[in-house]
């Protein structure tokens, strides 16, 4: 059988819970492991479901949205954005419920492929929309999640003047939060299902030394680039919340946990 994405999802969907059936070995005592699943692109259905699953375990999700995506006529950056997105009514509601809602650019431009001045202008426009639309937004207390995790040293220097932190390319296992930690690396996987890759990545991380794993997730089930099965997310959070010295946190609460 030719493995298409649809088939892959069906196969994984049917056996998805089996991925975790062996369970994780519990991380060694005395180490601290923070895990952030950083959900990009703001698909409406996925974001609602992600929030619900996190709430089931008393956790806050981390959802990063594109400033202009909800506007009619906004161009889709690529085929992996072809699902309905939420608007700021939804983002404000999820924020009220304790979830982290952070910027994922103005219109998903790869900011390394435009002149620095244009990149800075797009960042400013993104901040303007968030200031106007998202209750209690303050860029200097927020994390900017770069589209495609693409950035240059010059762009990062500029972002440092606007934001508390950035999420970009780099080692997915970051040091534990410390005062002034600004640049956060992450890993992602796609365009197929991330179920197996995510579970294996977390498993390896928990076997290692203390640290902060940031995994850049996108939509759930069949939405977005590199989707995650909602059943796997549910079971994963169930397992992780049962482990001592393992914390599932959004970025800002993790930075605050120094
Ligand atoms: Zn994105």
The ordered H/E elements are: HEHEHEHEHEEEHEHEH
| C-alpha geometry | globular
Main CATH class: Alpha Beta
Structural class: alpha/beta
Number of helical runs? 8
Full CATH superfamily name: Glycoside hydrolase/deacetylase
Oligomer: single chain
**Structural domain tally:** 1
Strand content: 5-15%
- CATH architecture, by name, is Alpha-Beta Barrel
Outline the fold blueprint.
Layout: H1 5-15, E1 33-40, H2 44-56, E2 62-65, H3 88-96, E3 100-103, H4 116-133, E4 143-145, H5 153-160, E5 165-168, E6 173-174, E7 183-185, H6 195-207, E8 211-217, H7 230-241, E9 246-248, H8 251-255
Parallel strand pairs: 1-2, 1-8, 1-9, 2-3, 4-5, 5-7
Antiparallel strand pairs: 6-8
Helix pairs in contact: 2-7, 4-5
Write up what this structure looks like.
Helix 2 links the parallel strand 1 and strand 2. By secondary structure, the chain is of the alpha/beta class. Strands 1, 2, 3, 6, 8 and 9 form a six-stranded mixed beta sheet that branches. The chain has eight helices and nine strands. The N and C termini lie far apart (51 Å). The protein is globular, with a radius of gyration of 18 Å. It binds zinc ion. The site of zinc ion has 5 residues, from loops.
């Amino acid at each position: 059988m030719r493995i298409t994405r649809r088939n892959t999802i069906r196969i994984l969907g049917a056996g998805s819970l089996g991925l975790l059936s062996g369970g994780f070995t519990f991380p060694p005592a005395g180490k601290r492991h923070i895990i952030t699943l950083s959900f990009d692109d703001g698909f409406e259905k996925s974001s609602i479901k992600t929030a619900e699953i996190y709430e089931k375990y008393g956790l806050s999700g981390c959802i990063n949205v594109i400033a202009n995506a909800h506007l009619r006529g906004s161009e889709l950056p690529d085929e992996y954005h072809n699902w309905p997105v939420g608007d700021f009514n939804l983002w404000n509601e999820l924020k009220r419920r304790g979830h982290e809602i952070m910027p994922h650019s103005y219109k998903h431009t790869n900011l390394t492929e435009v002149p620095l001045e244009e990149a800075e202008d797009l960042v400013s426009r993104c901040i303007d929309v968030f200031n106007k639309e998202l209750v209690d937004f303050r860029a200097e207390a927020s994390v900017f999640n770069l589209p495609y995790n693409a950035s240059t040293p010059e762009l990062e220097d500029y972002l440092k003047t606007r934001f508390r932190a950035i999420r970009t390319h780099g080692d997915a296992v970051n040091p534990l939060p410390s005062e002034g930690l600004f640049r956060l690396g992450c890993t992602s996987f796609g365009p197929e299902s991330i179920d197996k890759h995510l579970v294996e990545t977390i498993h390896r991380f928990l076997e290692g030394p203390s640290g902060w794993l940031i995994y850049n997730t996108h939509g759930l089930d069949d939405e977005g680039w590199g989707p995650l099965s909602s059943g796997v997310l549910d079971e994963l959070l169930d397992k992780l919340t049962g482990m001592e010295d393992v914390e599932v946190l959004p970025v800002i609460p993790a930075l605050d946990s120094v």
